[in-house]
TrEMBL record:
One of its GO terms (cellular component) is membrane. Keywords: Membrane, Transmembrane, Transmembrane helix. Transmembrane segments: none annotated. InterPro entries: LemA-like_dom_sf (IPR023353), MamQ_LemA (IPR007156). It is a single-pass membrane protein. It comes from Limosilactobacillus gastricus PS3. Pfam families: LemA. It is found in: Membrane. This is LemA family protein. Belongs to the LemA family.
Length: 168
């Protein structure tokens, strides 16, 4: 009974952790239209960058929350596009001085940190659950009650690459 309840609790914790990731992804998606409009209002930015951010935002919203890997892959692509947008904005001091832009950037940064923390919590919970499913005696209970391992959220290869720094 104790083993079963422990497995149930871990599975629920994993689901709750994923829910927190999903909430933060939605929060980020809600902030992006305001950021795009603020940036658009400041002149001749690369239309392609804004279109890419908008398109990827819609892609993240359209992926089912039940497909964790696909949802995170789309979210990681959006993060890359947002980084491009931030880089473009660096070339415009007036934009960086804009209060609305600064507020949105701070909120997005906080949201990105929450997404990162929630991913860590999710993977930690998955690790504990998967270890219990494979360890005696809870593996017997897990098999009887059809507990299956949960998938870790993978870090995309683009994030693993070391940044290239040049001091030319």
């Amino acid at each position: 009974m104790v083993a079963y309840n422990g497995l149930v609790r871990l599975r629920m914790n994993g689901q709750e952790s994923w829910s927190q990731i999903d909430v933060q992804l939605q929060r980020r998606n809600d902030l992006i239209p305001n950021l795009v409009e603020t940036v658009k209002g400041y002149g001749k930015y690369e239309a392609g960058t804004l279109e890419k951010v908008t398109s990827l935002r819609q892609q993240v919203a359209s992926v089912s929350s039940d497909d964790h890997q696909a949802k995170m892959a789309a979210a990681d692509q959006l993060s890359g596009a947002l980084n491009s947008l931030y880089a473009v904005a660096e070339n415009y001091p007036d934009l960086k001085a804009n209060e609305e832009y600064s507020r949105l950037m701070e909120e997005l940064s906080n949201t990105e940190n929450k997404i990162s923390y929630s991913r860590q919590l999710y993977n930690s919970t998955v690790s504990t659950l998967n270890a219990r499913i494979q360890s005696f005696p809870s593996n017997i209970v897990a098999k009887i009650h059809h507990f299956t391992p949960m998938e870790f959220l993978q870090v995309p290869e683009s994030v693993k690459e070391a940044p290239k720094v040049s001091f030319d």
